[in-house]
Amino acid sequence: MVKEGIPFVLFPVIIAAIFAFFHIWIGAAAFAALALFMAYFFRDPKRSVPTEANIIVSAADGKVTSIEERKDGKFVSVFLSPVDVHINRAPIAGRVVKVERFQGKKAPATSNQASQTNERNAITIKGEKMTVVCTQIVGILARRIVCWRSAGESVELGEKYGLIKFGSRTDLLMPKAVEIAVKIGDRVVGGETIIARLKD
Question: Is 58 among the catalytic positions?
Answer without folding.
Answer: no
